[in-house]
Predict the structure.
Amino acid sequence: MTKVIDHINNAKGKTLFSIEILPPRRGDGIKKLFNEIEPLMEFGPKFIDVTYHREEFIYKKRENGLLEKASIRKRPGTVAICAALTNKFQVDTVPHIICGGFTKEETENALIDLNFLGIDNILALRGDAIKTESRFEPTPGGHNYASDLIKQVSELNNGNYLNCEVENSIATDFCIGVAGYPEKHFEAPNFDTDLNYLKKKVELGAEYIVTQMFFDNQKYFDFVKRCREADINVPIIPGIKPLTSKGQLTVLPSIFHIDLPADLVKAVMECKNKEDIKKVGIDWAIMQSKELAHFGVPCLHYYSMGKSDTISKIAGEIF
Ligand code: FAD
């Protein structure tokens, strides 16, 4: 398997193609996912990111009428899907590993599983608050921030396992990616503070950054400039999400804390039907991608949300 950073270095300045997918919903099979990904393989994605979804709590009514709290994960299977995709398509995969919901020991076990599977890439994230919390609460015995998780992975990369000296321990060799926010992470008091914490993640061992989605390339260009001025010098991969419905005009800003450019909003509002909206979204993503590729970004990373048709149309124009 090849690490993301090696793919970037081997490309010698050529812009790569990659995608992010979501695991199928609990109860769905993997075949649908394979069918969605297959058409994208002709564009040669160098890696596929697989998101991680935390548990959610539901209340089930017991026979005696009392409510029982149960934990479910709506999209389980991140690690298994990574292994299955590599096996089926001979493509590198990047499982997302989050702090929320895990103790350090559970994280170590997950990393050992990945190491045994030959998966050498991870995207290290904090994760968001679960629905029943108003803000992110670290799991007792787990990590507060992505930087703490990176520290643990870097320790393992040096052969240092938790809690005890392991004789002749095998050092792992993970390539660590992290998230960056061209429009600032919503909890950060200001942009510079957020950038300082991003720098810390890189100093602790992150080798590249993947950005939150943005729809105005100037936000990415400004972000890269500010990173470089702050001496953050790793590759910064832009994340692109094609807009596909009118509802996303309000859903995307509220979930991802991003702005949508006035021209894009106007074009969507003028559409007569769903197909027209999809076309506006695809054309916008093509325009963004062409400009970013011209700027010389290391990779164009598409948030596919498990749907290949829009990404195929965009990739067909770029790669
Ligand atoms: P951190 O880097 O820990 O930052 C979180 C906040 O804390 C920021 O405001 C930061 O400024 C601040 N901060 C950081 N370090 C410190 C410190 N040491 N002291 C004080 N403050 C600090 N979520 C999922 O649940 N699953 C996924 O698969 C997933 N994939 C994602 C992929 C990408 C590319 C992106 C951009 C996001 C993804 N997310 C995912 C969402 C992510 O988990 C949330 O955005 C989360 O709120 C922050 O994660 P982070 O890793 O950026 O956190």
Q: What stands out?
A: Residues 4-242+289-305 form a domain with the TIM Barrel fold (CATH 3.20.20.220). The two ends are 23 Å apart (CA to CA). Residues 57 and 143 are 21 Å apart (CA to CA). The mean pLDDT is 95.
